[in-house]
Amino acid sequence: MIVGIHGIRCYRYLARAGTVELAGRALADEWAAALGLPLDPGAFHAAYYAQLLHLGTTMGTDEAEHLPPGAQRLLVEWVSALGAPAEVTMGPGTLPVRQAAGWLAERFGTAAQRFAAQFCREVDTYVSDPASQRRAAVRDEVHRVLAERRPRVVVAHSLGSVVAYEALWHRPFALDLLVTLGSPLGMPHVVFDRLALGEGNEAHKGLRPPKVARWVNIADVGDMVAVPRDLPGRFPGIDEHHEVTLGLVASHKATRYLARPEVAGILGPMLSAP
């Protein structure tokens, strides 16, 4: 059994499917198909939590200047971590936000602006308050799925890697393998400094979660979310790290990561093992 933990922009599955259960099933089926491995029916399940972070925003609110203050600060910090010059990230009022969005568009293309706004909104909703009910509810949903499905493997993408890492510290669960894809876990200020591992665990930040036997991380060389790309530099608990090339247009898509032969090579033996 494999459990997948998704990242941002997954509320659309619920909008299409109508129920959380069907949304999770649709996402799991999509991820399983992308893997291209022989899987028994029901062998891939999703811990679906998008509805717990959805703020009810409507179309036209994905411009950087329409983000809430916390998400705007996160955007500026993220762009700084990506290497933007100081003049882009400094200035009065909303100037740094506009400049940060412009810098992203210039470097990664105009589609990156909308993606960045969505990323900052959802990530800020999760990380802004270590004691928030939304954050706890997301982790609780992951714990519920793990307890129900008893997987050997967890595959976590993007923000899902942050959720998985925190959940596995708050309530350890025995896993043979944790695979993180396009992870922002090490992003300074934006994520790393805001991780909340639970009482007594803060000194263990960067270590492999307890009861996880092996941790593999995969990052695309052009993924603007996987910052820093060399995640083991901040997380010595990672046992194996791979850098891949997905192509700039789809350098953060979960299905593109899952289709990589490196992922099949890691997960294939787990499926055939007793």
Account of the protein in words:
With 274 residues, the protein is of the alpha/beta class. The protein folds into two domains: 196 residues, Alpha/Beta hydrolase fold, catalytic domain (Rossmann fold, 3-Layer(aba) Sandwich), CATH 3.40.50; 64 residues, no CATH class. The chain is 44% helix and 11% strand. The chain is built from eleven helices and six strands. A six-stranded parallel sheet has the order 2-1-3-4-5-6, sandwiched between helices. Helix 1 packs across helix 2, helix 4 packs across helix 6 and helix 4 packs across helix 7. The chain is globular, with a radius of gyration of 18 Å. The N and C termini lie close together (12 Å). The model has no long low-confidence stretch (mean pLDDT 87).
How do the strands and helices of this protein lay out in sequence?
Blueprint: E1 2-5, H1 11-17, H2 20-35, E2 44-47, H3 50-53, H4 69-81, H5 86-89, H6 95-108, H7 111-127, H8 133-149, E3 153-157, H9 159-170, E4 177-181, E5 215-220, E6 240-244, H10 254-258, H11 261-272
Parallel strand pairs: 1-2, 1-3, 3-4, 4-5, 5-6
Helix pairs in contact: 1-2, 4-6, 4-7, 6-7, 8-9
